[in-house]
């Protein structure tokens, strides 16, 4: 299966417009944003766990990265409520479940095989946020030589000059909206911009978003 599989092309998805598709596990559904492969695939998806659902034990040969958008996601390492950012590196294993139900933005099989970092960041906590450009706050989530992952908060009327995206960029809009020279992106939008692009951003009403950069070379 291929969905937005060509990483050299721009992709925009209003995730709210997609149907939930059943997975092989009862009570677990997906909205597929990008995918290259079968059931084991390089993939970016929204995954919804019904209350009381659980996924079978499995190993992540090329890693897993997710942000909890709603509810509480659980595995044997702990409970991850809304706002938690989690990285489980290549070779990790777990048994995910959710007692109250959960929705996560998850990326599979997209890590450096040498990555061994386990990351857990509560993006809703006050600490860790830094001032960025005027009108911007940044919460660093992860950085290595291949990628930089952050949460961004933009104030009303924030505006940023053209930026060269040498390694591309990927966004998920959590709150508010923003625009660039190619469109406007409301809450629930997933956006991928290929390596070598440039982008000029404005956010008349402010926005909160997750961003990954550098990984699309």
Q: Kindly report the name of the CATH homologous superfamily of the largest domain.
A: Jelly Rolls
Order of helix and strand elements from N to C terminus: EEEEEEEEEEEEEEEEEEEEEEE
Based on the structure, what is the oligomeric state of the protein chains?
single chain
- The CATH topology of the largest domain is what? Jelly Rolls
Cα-atom radius of gyration: 17 Å
The percentage of residues in β strands lies in over 45%
Identify low-pLDDT runs: none
Write down the CATH class of the largest domain.
Answer: Mainly Beta
Kindly report the average pLDDT value: 96
Number of domains: 2
What structural class should be given to the helix and strand makeup?
mainly beta
Number of helices: 0
Distance between the termini: 22 Å
Notable features of this structure?
mainly beta, Jelly Rolls, 2 domains, 9-stranded antiparallel beta sheet, 8-stranded antiparallel beta sheet, globular
């Amino acid at each position: 299966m291929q969905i937005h599989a060509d990483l050299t092309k721009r992709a925009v998805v209003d995730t709210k417009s997609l149907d939930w598709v059943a997975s092989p596990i009862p009570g677990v559904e997906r909205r597929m944003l990008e995918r290259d492969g079968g059931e084991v695939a390089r993939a970016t998806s929204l995954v919804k766990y019904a209350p009381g659902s659980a996924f079978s034990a499995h190993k992540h040969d090329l890693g897993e990265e997710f942000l909890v958008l709603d509810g509480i996601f659980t595995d044997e390492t702990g409970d991850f409520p809304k706002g938690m950012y989690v990285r489980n590196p290549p070779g990790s294993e777990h048994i995910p479940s959710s007692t109250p139900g959960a929705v996560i933005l998850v990326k599979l099989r997209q890590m450096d095989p040498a990555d061994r970092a386990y990351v857990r960041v509560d993006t809703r906590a006050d600490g860790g946020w830094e001032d960025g450009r005027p009108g911007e706050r940044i919460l660093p989530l992860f950085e290595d030589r291949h990628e930089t992952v952050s949460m961004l908060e933009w104030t009303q009327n924030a505006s940023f000059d053209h930026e060269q995206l040498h390694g591309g960029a990927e966004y998920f809009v959590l709150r508010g909206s923003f625009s660039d020279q190619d469109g406007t992106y409301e809450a629930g939008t997933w956006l991928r911009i290929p390596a070598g692009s440039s982008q000029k951003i404005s956010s008349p009403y402010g926005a909160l978003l997750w961003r990954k950069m550098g990984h699309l070379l």
